[in-house]
Design goal:
single chain, 828 residues, Immunoglobulin-like, 6 domains, 8-stranded parallel beta barrel, globular, disordered N terminus, binds beta-D-galactopyranose
Amino acid sequence: MRTVTLKFIKKTDVSFKQRAAILFSFIFTLTAFAQQSNREVLTLEKNWRFHKGDLSNGFSTTFNDSKWEKVTVPHDWAIKGPFDKNIDKQNIAIVQNGEDVATEKTGRTGALPYIGVGWYRNEFAVPNFNSDKKVLLLFEGAMSEPEVFINGKKVGSWNYGYSYFYFDVTPYILGTTKNKIAVKLTNRELSSRWYPGAGLYRNVRVIIKNNESIDQWGTFITTPTITTELAKVNIKTKVSGANLRLRTTIKDASGKTVAVDSTTAIYGNEFEQNIAVKNPNLWSPEKPYLYSSVAQLYAGSILKDEIVTKFGIRKIKYEANKGLSLNDSIIKFKGVCLHHDLGPIGTAVNKAALRRQLTILKDMGANAIRSSHNMPSLEQLELCDEMGFLFLAESFDEWAKPKVENGYHLYFETDAEKDIVNLVHATRNHPSIVMWSSGNEVPDQWGAEGAKRAKWLQDIFHREDPTRPVTVGMDQVKATIASGFGALLDIPGLNYRVNLYEEAFKAFPQGLILGSETASTVSSRGIYKFPVVEAKMKKYDDFQSSSYDLEACSWSNIPDEDFVLQDDKPWVIGEFVWTGFDYLGEPTPYDDNWPSRSSYFGINDLAGLPKDRFYLYRSRWNTKKETLHMLPHWNWEGREGEVTPVFVYTNYNSAELFVNGKSMGIQKKNNSSPTNRYRLMWMDVKYEPGIIKVVALDDNGKVVAEKETRTAGKPYKLIVEADRTKLDADGKDLSFVTVSVVDKNGIPCPTATNQLQFKIKGAGDFRAVSNGDATSLELFHLPTMKLFSGKLVVLVQSASEAGEIELMVSGKGLQTAKLKLITQNLKE
Ligand code: GAL
């Protein structure tokens, strides 16, 4: 007998199972499921066996996998490395980046071992299986080309690693206990422009329901009419079976019933209800109010199925010359693009890691996310609904024309429609999603064929969801003006090309422009280069980029240039900055410089630590809180007497700077240049060790706030600070502990690079560590790493039992730091 821990959710829609989940041990041979339940969802997390390498019989029921590695899903088989410059080495010219000569690109996909074939095996029970039951097997993403086998037989396959998909596996189920599942995944080289991860990196679920039941993703909730007094909630529900009745109960956020409707009127296989909700609470980023709809399907008096779907009541409108309005108020996207990797834990989806990202972005004042360039995780959408973020959900980075040799163009003709259908069906009830994107900088932007493809894809989105507009991130603006491509889109999205916004606005008929991708400024946290000048594709010997935030790519720009457009043009409906966080792969401008292996684009680094740029955005976007941030650090031994400019990012319009008590004068934001409009800059300051102090002034010249930075002495003592000290005892919750080092007087040491060690005792495990250095080849999963610019972040993972965790951080010659965390059974 083998004990398997499964997540078991009753009567709950897949999208919202986590909230209602009950974790318990399930023993296959017990009759624990004797009582009837109408829908069960098993999340297959534990006891997977994994093997890297191809096999001819990996699917066979008699195959002995006991020697395979035991893993938990979500799982990313490549994140443990090691980094290797030869993995997916791409000897190419990146045409999108304006290159015409091929060079050796070493870290483009992260230099982690994701290429090749991987097998996963597990087994699952189907309690009470009988001829009245239907069993679905759902994948929320599998990287990539998954081939799925049950009990030795091939059930089906999918190509795109980012898609959600499911199979009806009822005919393959052999009994109530040991049904064997095997999944083969294949990752080809030259198939990505960033680190895509590898394996079963999102959840795998078994859904057991009655034959008479609500179809998978069969619920579509819209709110076509909204007034202060009343919202009309339209619910379409696709079902299987005959002579059925649907009872829908709408509950408010506190769980109180606010409306009930019952119907037997079915059109084909679809019920349609219009339900009135009085005095509706509207959903918005500031007040993300969620209702839930409980759908109960009856045959006579027997309850056959029940699912809960969360939704929001909100109005979105895109109007020529006026822009985007949410609930009748104009709003602009203050957004960031995000790739799906979570830095040191790779692509294995983790809700705590996603929540931390969104918490950081919320503090920055961001209100929107673009899932570039593919389908977001369902967890990320749930969090955006709950925490209040607008969402631009994207589908593809390639259509029929290639960017990389083995990219999505291989499947475009056969798969694009079904991939979009699944994207829309699986996610359309999320109020956070306010726009779809069918593509990013697709080479099909040129010519008539591309325009036809754009129309075809947009029509599929419209057919599946008439309530949201569609965009494409366009970088070939002139070509899309010439071909009609840009004119036919619901919303023309411009990637960079700040100089073409006016022209595009005039040429396109829509009367508005979205900054679908902006900035691509590069910087390394805590690294400053001299002289301080604006530069494109600037490279340094240490393969870092300067944090004075003046360096961008040949096609891109510094943040201030976007701010000008956002502030001055009412028809610009917002921006999505490339990117909110650094990601694995694409180490531009060091694409051909080993060991660069992750990006420099992030507003936050790979560890999630804010770079200076975070405060530049915060000073503009977070209108509720004060921002007063000074750079650079003040530890410049050897630069005494040399010009060391000081920048201040603040919501205040002016400030005075002091170096060791001497005034360097007052600076005031002004319109003489984009940087002078958004930053306070003292360009002539000469370095002398000591204290720099900034004093912010209000418009009457009154002192309103001040901050100082001191020159630090030698590293002396380690400091630890957790983002959360209470963790859920679910075996996957994470605390992100920032480790820094201070001198004898408690002053942070901004250039420290000490090698540290981490030990964990008690009810948790060491999960990973990251210091945000894009050139580091230290492995994320080993409990030792160097500080980078005086900091790093340790990820501590909860165990499945409640208890206490102790983290100990030590380094040679440094005072050790200890931290206590608690794991307990938290009800989400
Ligand atoms: C864009 C592209 C992104 C990323 C970025 C880097 O052109 O859409 O995926 O490559 O450039 O600046």
